[in-house]
DNA sequence: CTCAACGTTCCAGTAGGGTGGAAGGTCAAG
DNA sequence: CTTGACCTTCCACCCTACTGGAACGTTGAG
């Protein structure tokens, strides 16, 4: 299958697929005599995997690591475990940070709703931030 | 005060202050005869405001809007209110998205802890993603 | 044969908030 | 007068995941 067909089958674009290749996420496909990329049909699974990895918040670089382990004939289970637990920690940290920030911004916002422009101190930019 | 002193007083760097100037967040300071930026001492308050705005998750562009309103002699209260309520909504959405993602990644991670590499299906990359 | 719809490469740009470095001028202490 | 710590400008680069466009070759239907 050519690149456009693969893009259609996976809901991406030819641009993106060439980008993935340049980033080392795609195995180098054979080319037709005229130079067109000619993908085996199971490439669809690989792209779907990349999309699921992204949906789990992994970066393309991390997804690439898993792919490389698999391409090397090994099982990436251990690496996947460690990536997922790292991701989990990041998410927990990020959520905790955002909850604190939400509190802060919430208070500022409440205060700003009671704002009286006339009470604006002339020597500062804004008393609510 | 020169740029290095201002940087020290506010916990930033001279690089950053020049960057803020290029982004239009700083009023253009007078220069000494040799071309050095010579800031009035109340510039410290302005930098502190920028840092508080960043801590509230506002972008430099948004902080710049507030600063411009203030520089124009007006009270930015109404704008600050709308920025903060927008930010609050973004935070709520972001937190909700992250909580869903955390669920997903948590399940994947739990499943991966029970991984048996031998059970790895040969036609897919990893069954846990 | 023509024409649209494909494909190819390569280069540049996006957002956001800076950072690094080169090449050069200035200030103040010793 | 020298030295080191300042200051100046300008240009490029970091990160991530693409996207746009130019310039050109290929395929397949009418």
TrEMBL record, chains A, B:
<keyword id="KW-0805">Transcription regulation</keyword>
<protein>
    <submittedName>
        <fullName>Heavy metal-responsive transcriptional regulator</fullName>
    </submittedName>
</protein>
<feature type="domain" description="HTH merR-type">
    <location>
        <begin position="1"/>
        <end position="69"/>
    </location>
</feature>
<dbReference type="Pfam" id="PF13411">
    <property type="entry name" value="MerR_1"/>
</dbReference>
<dbReference type="InterPro" id="IPR009061">
    <property type="entry name" value="DNA-bd_dom_put_sf"/>
</dbReference>
<keyword id="KW-0238">DNA-binding</keyword>
<keyword id="KW-0804">Transcription</keyword>
<dbReference type="InterPro" id="IPR047057">
    <property type="entry name" value="MerR_fam"/>
</dbReference>
<dbReference type="InterPro" id="IPR000551">
    <property type="entry name" value="MerR-type_HTH_dom"/>
</dbReference>
């Amino acid at each position: 299958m050519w690149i456009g067909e693969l893009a259609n089958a996976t809901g991406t674009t030819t641009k993106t697929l060439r980008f993935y290749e340049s980033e080392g996420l795609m195995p180098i496909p054979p080319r037709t005599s005229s130079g067109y990329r000619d993908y085996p049909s199971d490439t669809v699974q690989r792209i779907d995997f990349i999309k699921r990895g992204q949906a789990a918040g992994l970066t393309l670089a991390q997804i690439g690591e898993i792919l490389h382990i698999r391409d090397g004939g090994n099982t990436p289970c251990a690496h996947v475990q460690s990536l997922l637990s790292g991701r989990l920690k990041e998410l927990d940290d990020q959520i905790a940070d955002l909850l604190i920030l939400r509190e802060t911004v919430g208070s500022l916002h409440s205060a700003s709703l009671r704002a009286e422009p006339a009470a604006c101190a002339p020597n500062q930019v804004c008393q609510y931030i």
